[in-house]
Amino acid sequence: MAIGRTFEEALQKGLRMIGQGAHGFTGNKEIPIENIDKALREPTDNRIFVISKALIHGYTPEKIHELTKIDRWFIDKLMNIINTAAELKALNSLEELDKALLRKAKCQGFSDFQIGRHILKDRIDSEEMVIKVREYRKKLGVLPVVKQIDTLAAEFPAQTNYLYLTYNGTASDIAYEHDGKSIVVLGSGAYRIGSSVEFDWCSVNALQTIRKSGWRGIMINYNPETVSTDYDMCDRLYFDELTYERVLDICDLEEPHGVIISMGGQIPNNLATRLDAAKVPILGTTADSIDNAEDRNRFSAMLDRLGIDQPRWRELTSMNDIHSFIRDVGFPVLVRPSYVLSGAAMNVCSNDTELEQFLKLAAEVSKKHPVVVSEFIQHAKEIEFDAVADHGTVIAYAISEHIEFAGVHSGDATIQFPPQKLYVETARRIKKIARKIAEALKISGPFNIQFLAKENDIKVIECNLRASRSFPFVSKVLKINLIELATKVMTGEKVTPPEKSAFDLDYVGVKASQFSFSRLQKADPVLGVDMASTGEVGCIGDDTNEAVLKAMLSVGYTVPGRNILISSGDAKQKVELLGACKLLAKNNYSIYATGGSYKFLVDNGVPANLVYWPSQPDQHPQALEMLHERKIDLVINIPKNLTQEELDNGYRIRRAAVDFNIPIITNTRLASAFITAFCNMPLENIQIKSWDEYK
């Protein structure tokens, strides 16, 4: 939600807030469009940028109105932005920019970045350019003012806590104390897959702790649906952008004691080094330590120095280098291109064909756009370590384990806490490694480390020096508010570590993910390294079965009536699922299985009925037909490999299950956990207990 005093200002702010890489209505990367007329007729999320391109290419507002049916008033306003951009582009240096044009551009919502790009034409580094424009603007005295939103329709003087910055005004509505008693918390911005209400919970708890400790709590966030943007959650609420420019503007006005950047996920975290360079006082872990954890090369070198193991990886700039690295480590590998056209951020590739196909999407592999290729360890457990440290000493922690093996994004994985199937030795070594990392990075505040464990071999995947999305879940299961502890550490309070006994729980929490595949036409419901879930639940039970069953029922699964369709992947996955299949047979379920799975089950003494793949249309019974006729109550479909036939067959089964609203599981370990839970725990035995009753 963007607020401004002109339509142009609010619109340009809003486009930046979405966080999809737009700098406003102009000054963005060129988007290739074959047919502008056609793109204008079709309302899509990118059409606003097509309108910008059309206006620059000489389309008249009337012509755009005819094609889009958007009211002329809006198009005329957009034309104002284009005209101002043209005036800026006519200049070649900042010194040519006069105060009147600069103010006009700022009143229309142009950021310092846009102004710099239009005038300096990307001749200098973008971060340096923004600093130069900012200095020049301040020298000319073109500064924003703070305004309150009038909630009383101008009938009475309004004293509200909804504040925003604008250049369309002469004086601020707020009198600042300048007493150094304010602490600014940066929020998480727009909700999207991967950054959602979890970070809002963290921000709100940080604000509450700050205020209880006698500081003034200042919030910057722009999502109207969040609790952190409720007027009574903080002393001052800025409904504004989480950009370098805007955070500095607010810090200039507030002169705060410090800024907390570790509560809002990756958006504030990415600002760390730039804010630090601008002398903004960052509370908690230093910007250099954050950069040390975020920069793959620095982090990797640090782990080597500490003698901590990590999956082998390389940053590569040519296909030859990629093939030579894969010859060393072998398939499968995890591939992360730095610039991807399709929006697919990373992928696991199991053979040369898949690698070539995926890297075609990556547009180019070059020195400017390197690709990070990592060894992908199969059948390894993924373990989360969420903790709070004080000057490098861990004072509270939570170790949780993914039910699925590594390869499923931590935001999609089903997580159990405390871990139920972790060797004591593994847990001990994880704590030891985490303490080493916390000490090396001198962490003060929240952090999260992701580990891979196979047998007792432990490797570090990554470390985030901020609150992670599992913080609210583990805090609620542990009944220790880790964010409250972290905030106290960052504000300099003395914190007593919780008693050791607090970590010995007699109950189990399970976090399960909610998916929206039924709303996404043609989407394949297979979970991978890219996050796909749109929500999550957390449930507590006296044991794993009860917690798993509650969680699965909460995200919309039902206990199957009678018929279950199984295609169980490769040989190893078939073996993993065998115990669960025997349990189904013992509980009188009818198992329907495709070719290889049918043979494997029958050979191992599990009764099953053979059904055929869509690629065998002449054979009956057809798995697809059974789904269409709703004869199946649960589908377990584990992708075996990524050959075209396997992908096509499996996809058609999975998609039919989604389209006919039949519960589907695509992961062996989760399927086993769910089957074990509903076979061992009748629904009527699920206890209804309040959170307080779990001691």
General description of the model:
By secondary structure, the chain is of the alpha/beta class. Helices cover 38% and strands 17% of the residues. Strand 18, helix 21 (571-586) and strand 19 (590-593) form a beta-alpha-beta unit. Helix 4 (61-68) crosses helix 5 (72-89), helix 7 crosses helix 8 (126-139) and helix 9 (197-212) crosses helix 19.
Provide the β-strand percentage band.
15-25%
The top-level CATH class of the largest domain is: Alpha Beta
Counting DSSP H or I runs of 4 or more residues, the number of helices is: 25
The name of the CATH topology of the largest domain is: Rossmann fold
Helix content: 25-40%
What number of structural domains do the residues give? Answer: 5
Unreliable spans: 339-344
Question: What's the quick description here?
Answer:
The chain contains 25 helices and 22 strands. With 695 residues, the chain is of the alpha/beta class.
